[in-house]
Specification:
heterodimer, A: Chloramphenicol Acetyltransferase, Chloramphenicol Acetyltransferase, B: 78 residues, Non-ribosomal Peptide Synthetase Peptidyl Carrier Protein, Chain A, 4 helices
Chain lengths: 461, 78
Amino acid sequence: MKKTFPLVAAQNMHYEWIRQYGTQQVSGVSVVASLQAPLDFGLLKKCIQLEIKRYGCLRLRFTAPDSDGKIMQYIVPDDSRDIPLKDMTDMTMEQADRIMQQKAYETFDGNDIPMFEFLMVKLPEGYNGFFLHMDHRLIDSCGIVVMINDIMSLYTHYRFGSEYPADLADFESVLESDIAKAANEKRFQKDKKFWDDQLDALGEPLYSDIEGPSVLEASRKKHRKKTLRSADFEKKELMVAVKDYVLEPQAAKGLMDFCMNHQLSMTNLLLLGMRTYLSKVNDGQEDITIENFISRRSTHDEWTSGGSRTIMFPCRTVISADTEFLSAAYEIQNMQNRIYMHSNYDPALIRKEMKKRYGTPDGTRYVSCYLTYQPMPVRMENPFLKDIRQHSKWFANGAATKKMYLTVSHTEDGGMNFSYHYQVASLSEKDMELLYYYMMRILFMGISEPEKTVGQIMKEA
Amino acid sequence: MNREEEFKKIVAQYCKVSPEDMTGEMKFREDLGFSSLDFMSFLGEIEDTFDVELEEESVLKIFTVGEALELLNGMEAA
């Protein structure tokens, strides 16, 4: 009989979205990793197959839902599939990217089936590597980066005789430990108290939209409730578009230096930039909530076990216009640090508690903007490959559960990439342009004059 | 394993320094490479392992391994 486990909070987050939106597409994650060098595809296939053995999370499968819709997960001992090779050398890189983008839209439908697919790829311009498409309940983006590096470490071991990569942590043991932590009643009560205290102190959150207060007003009319504080979210038209902006290395250094000099983390600076913009376009609203994704990878085992650990928590701050920029950044940092300490909690319970307290109508949320700061680049950190040009790219799954989701990462030349994923049902590229433009104006005004108040910055930006 | 050894063993799970090489002067962020998330997760684990409640104000004053250990020992004595 197979050993089954319940889903952990991060997996449940994705599963709830699948149920809510009625498609597994919302849980897809895809990436290509390639090198501008010839590869021994026979060997690469062997390394990918070996990785499937080493990285237990790849062998996860899900049971059929029970009568309450609940599913369980289990690890199959073996998955010795073939890894096909796709030749796209007769195309341009844009065409090849388009083909992989189409793959990224595909879904894994069914129970008790593998939830990932590897393709080895021969790309234009001499790039060779592999494309991976899988379900986010198996792995998050940090886990994918670790896996890509592990595959290439196996490859360079067999190809060039580099050291055999260290064992990865046992996925099943880490999963069991996570489940045990979540079941620790004392820890649970502490975490619950932290989140409940926040609601006790601040009351019901207030929705803020990048389109301004009209969105909340429309929901108030729809629900015939003038005091409604949450707004409807799109459930049907999930098509997403992506707009990337690159901040050049010198400017990115300015942000990083500011963080270092003031002992701030980049996440908190970005949250401040985003919340100040939301405040600006919502008539100076002081109570702003942004959902921020946390990787929940700190120990060695957590880093190398794979799995889906990344989870979002609401970062809610009430910051008045007369607060200095730097003080506001510390306020956010203080809140985020406390959230980190209570990040074993299942955020679904926070939403449940709000619904219980405030009767939040179904189909409405308090948040329109989501942030992930991704300090780890999708780059093969391998001394045997360091001088070889790489082409790596994440592909959007094409179905957005969030109105606007910003992923900030670092580029190889020291710049920063701001990747805005937005639902085309209500937002356009112009909205993203404005958001990026004002976020940068706010951030750079703030770091050059940190004693300036956020009110002044909102006015002048 | 005594309390200090157990404490250092937990710290070592979050960094590349072994418990044997860990000294009280080592700073969590600068010397051991802890991020804010690492540090706060670590404190949560300390609370659970040693069954103590860390006060937010005290936590903010911790920079080194020695300070954290001292705080923990103080709580044990209290």
